[in-house]
Structure formats: C-alpha cells, structure tokens
Amino acid sequence: MRHLLSTATLSRDEATRILDVAEDMADVSTREIKKLPTLRGRTVVNLFFEDSTRTRISFEAAAKRLSADVINFSAKGSSVSKGESLKDTAQTLAAMGADGVVIRHSASGAAAVLAASDWTDAAVVNAGDGTHEHPTQALLDAFTIRKRLHGAASRGKDLDGVKVAIVGDILHSRVARSNVWLLDALGAEVTLVAPPTLVPVRMESWPARVSFDLDEVIADGPDALMMLRIQQERMRAAYFPTEREYSRVWGLDDRRLASLPATTMVMHPGPMNRGLEISAAAADSPRSTVREQVANGVSVRMAVLYLLLAGVSEAA
Ligand code: NCD
Please, what sign has the CA dihedral across residues 129, 133, 135, 141? Predict the structure, then answer.
C-alpha cells in the first residue's frame, strides 16, 4: 500500500490487516508511555483545506504517538486564503521534506490528484475529499463494530453477516461511501436509510440495500445503526421540509431509541447535530459508541501511518 485514498480498493485481507495492526496500536495507548519510536525522523503534514476538529487532532495524536514530526497546516490564515493553489502548497510542503501528507479538501478527488502528481513523493492519506471518501473514518467504524462484537478476541475477525444500517444524508456523505465499500469487503450486510431526496443517483452499483422506512429497519434488528450528520454546508437546496419533520421521520429520537433491540449499537462519526439526526439521550446512552469511535480513530490512524511510512527507507 503506497497511499490510502479509498476503501473501494481494499481487499478483505488488507482491511483485516489494518484493523489487526490497529489492535496492537490500541494496546500501546493503554501503556503508561503511549509512544513508539517507529516513525522517528519522519515528517507527517496535516494539510486541512476544510474545517475539522476530531480528524485533524486524531491524525496529529496518531503521528506523535509514533514519534513522527508533525506539521499542521490549515487553509484559514494561510496563503491558500490568498489564492495559492493545491499544487503550490503541496510543492512547498514537499520542499520541507514531508514523508506523509494527510489531506482534507472540499473537492472530491483532491487526494487522488495529489497522489498521482509529481508535486510530492509523500504517501498520501485521504482524510475526506468532498462528498467522495473518508477511508480512515470507515476503518475506525469497522474497528469499533468488531471490538463491540468480539472484545479482546477481535483480531483476525471479519464482519460476516453483521447487519449495519447507515441512516440520513447519504447523498453528501463521504463517510457513507467509504463505509459501504469497506463493510461489504469485510462481509457485512449494509442497508442505507434516507429520504429519497438524499439518496444518490446511480446507486444500483453499490453493494447495499436501500430502505425508506427507518422503523422497519430497526425492527429487523441491526447490529449497528450509524446515524449521519445532515451536511448543511454542502446543501444548496431544500432536501427536506423542516428540521422537525426530518427528525420525526429519519432521526433516532427517544421513541426509536426505546424500540431498539438490546444488542444494537448506535454510531455517529461526529460532529453531531443533537436533536436533529440523533437525540441527546441516544448520543449519550450506553449503546452509543461515539466516544469509542474517537478513541479508536487514533489507533486506526496509527496503523495506517505505520503501514504506509514505516517500511520506507530514508534513502528511498
Ligand atoms: C465526518 C466528515 O468530516 O466527513 N466527520 C469526521 O470526519 N469526524 C462526518 C461529518 O462531517 O459529518
């Protein structure tokens, strides 16, 4: 693996390997000294052209726990706000000796453009490109599901037959796309639940079922119910009448929370719109994995950075 741009190209074995290495990294995080010397002398640049809290902090923590040097770059307050292009920015960072570039950008395909370019030789990790993909989020979600289901016996396990429902703004969600490919590769059965206006066209090729009835999907007893944020910043039209109406028909409100089978875990990638796609009680309930997802994100990103960067010799 030279870059991590998408989950669509990951085989079951490759995905399981990343999750297993992440288990080892999670063990490191329970030690008194949460640090490995593995990436000492390497430089990881976090190149964030879009706002982010948890993903940027998570990559920063992951790189630091592997002893890499970290340079954080965010577009606000940088020369990008003066009109500097991705190319010029990338070349500047390459000249500073970046070994790995973690990029978030509002344009779908930006990470792939950077990886295919000769602007930098760095390994590229896609940390979210427009509405396209967010592979480390899907990996941390799969890790979280596997961990809740198998606990300490998670290593080597796939998600064969595990039922996952992904609910909400599928249209604008890179999290949904990356999860569909990865969960399918791991053997899970994915159901997408959304208002017809928030379902992408040309979805027939996706390995997932579509439902327009959240209560029916809940009654079917999914192992995981993944609620998505309504991506208001990507909406240029009205996709549903009112927030109250959305919440009533498509949200995980307190009534639906009470009707969930005891074994269903509730997931959300964050940031949450409490009271819109998920109620406060659902977000804070013991079945919610939201905080585990954040903690697991660091382990998964450590695994990805390690697998991409540790093998590359300094001279190469
Ligand atoms: C997601 C993203 O940015 O795509 N969030 C995240 O990475 N923590 C999901 C979202 O913003 O809704």
Answer: positive
CATH topology of domain 12-134+294-309: Rossmann fold (3.40.50)
Provide the residue count of the chain. Answer: 316
Give 314 Cα–ligand 1 centroid separation in angstroms. Answer: 33
Helices (H) and strands (E) in the chain, counts: 11, 9
Asked if residue 113 has pLDDT above 70, the reply is yes
Mutate to test the pocket of ligand 1, among 229, 268, 294, 300 (most ligand atoms within 8 A of CB): 229
Cα 63 from Cα 291, distance rounded (Å) = 20
The CATH homologous superfamily of the domain defined by 136-289: Aspartate/ornithine carbamoyltransferase (3.40.50.1370)
More confident: 166 or 237: 166
Q: What is the pTM of this model?
A: 0.95
The pLDDT value given to residue 81: 64
288 lines ligand 1 (CB under 6 A): no
